Amino acid sequence: MNLREDLLAHERAASAVYEQEKGIKPANNRFGYYTYLRTAADLADYVSKAFTTKNSKEREAFYISKGFRSYDAILNEHREEISHSKKTSIRDIKPGDRVTAYDICVISNTYDLMHGMTVNKEDPIHPFVCLRSEIGGVYSDNITEDDRFYNYSLEKETQANFESASFSKPVNRLLYDDFLRQDILSQAMQIPAHLFVRYSNRSDYVYRGVYFVNSLIDGNKMFELIRESFVINPLGVMSGDKQMLEEFKKDRRAFFQKLYSKSADAFAHDHRLREVRDLPPEFFDVLPDGFHPISGDNLEQVLRDYLEEAAIRQQIGSLGEELVREYEEDRVKLFAPQQVRNIRKAADSEGFDFESFESRGRIIRKVQIEVKTTSDRNPLRRFFMSSNEVKIMNENPESYWLYRVFDINAEDPQFFALRENVKGRINMQPADFACQILG
Asked: How many Å apart are CA 140 and CA 134, to the nearest integer?
């Protein structure tokens, strides 16, 4: 008998005796936790932390008086099973995954099934918020017409709470502080809000991913949240620009929509790209994330997500290429100034981004440079290569270079270069296949 089966059998037998003598029905939430928690470590965490109320202690004392084991004794009997298990964390959940309310309780480290917000208590230095919301429920939470934004009701907070900075829920205080600091552009300062949404009280929650507080609306009765994939830390763009900062403070939504419009002019700045020769060890301590699946409950929403994120990626890529061109012009000028005018942007069909030059003693030869740009601060995050890019890389092993531009929106954007044996220094995994029906 494993821990789950033992706890269920124990609770059924003991609560039946308790009901017979006390006239009080079983604690149904306990059966829910015993049934739906994912791992033995989750169950052990629940048992050790949740039964701390006066009523729970009195119930356990009654059980023991009737010859049943204590919860500590049950956990001790399954200590080996528990030691080989691990507690579910937010890192185990990906956008689009379906989870139960019980899962969310474990992730946020609080065993309260009520609707609302909870702060993860396991990481006081870098806490995160779990938002549990129901579309069409008693509160006015909703996905807006622009689904980058989500409105989250502060149902227990009044105008007086905001004026006095005295909040019913401590988590509201934390999120409100983030809003006041105007730090949404610097995600390092933000408390990530992990949003779980369901469409009825009988359905599982769907994990929608990370959001940040964008503004207060509806008379300060609601947080407007903005999706993480839309906030790409354009702090470097705003640095020193008082007009842009005022525009941001006045209307954040309009600012973001302007910043990520189809025009790349909003990205213009005079930053210079800096090459990093050696990557810091901490980059290798964090496993690179894969690409999150596009979430959505209907085709129209999936399409909007895809088009929006593709447009942003395209703009980021264009900015990276612009900075690389400037870097290459400065680099080539040092050894072959006559060739600077011959640095060219390649056509899409050529399988690389720039044709540039390198010096091998007295020999000046052409090189093909592929630019892969990310707003992430870690260049080890995964990126895509097309089949044509891979083909050109394989055909030109000695002259094909790869520039991984990262932290693109920072004041000091950087890149890490692979200038030899590119194929041997990257881990390639097939992402998709082009198919055609043969007949």
From this structure: 9
Please say if the pLDDT value at position 221 is more than 80.
no
Give the containing element (helix H, strand E) for 242: helix 242-250
Condensed to tens digits (0 to 9), the pLDDT of residues 245-255 reads 566 656 665 66
Computed over its alpha carbons, how large is the radius of gyration of the chain?
A: 27
**Architecture (CATH level 2) of domain 302-425:** 3-Layer(aba) Sandwich (3.40)
As a whole number, mean pLDDT of residues 210-225 equals: 79
Distance (Å, whole) CA 377 – CA 316 = 14
* Whole-angstrom distance, CA of residue 261 vs CA of residue 269: 16
DSSP per position, 174-215 = HHHHHHHTT-TT-GGGS--EEEEEESSTTS-EEEEEEEEEEE
Residues constituting the chain: 439
- Residue 160 has φ and ψ, to the nearest 5°, of -60, -35
Please give the pLDDT value at position 277: 84
Domain ranges (residues) in the chain: 3-83, 88-231, 302-425
Indicate the CATH number for domain 88-231.
Answer: 2.30.280
- Mean pLDDT to the nearest integer, 390-414: 88
Taking the whole predicted model, whether its pTM rises above 0.85 is answered as no
Distance (Å, whole) CA 209 – CA 305:
13
31 to 55, 97, 205, 350, 420: CA distances (angstroms): 17, 23, 19, 61, 60
Largest pairwise CA distance in the chain: 97
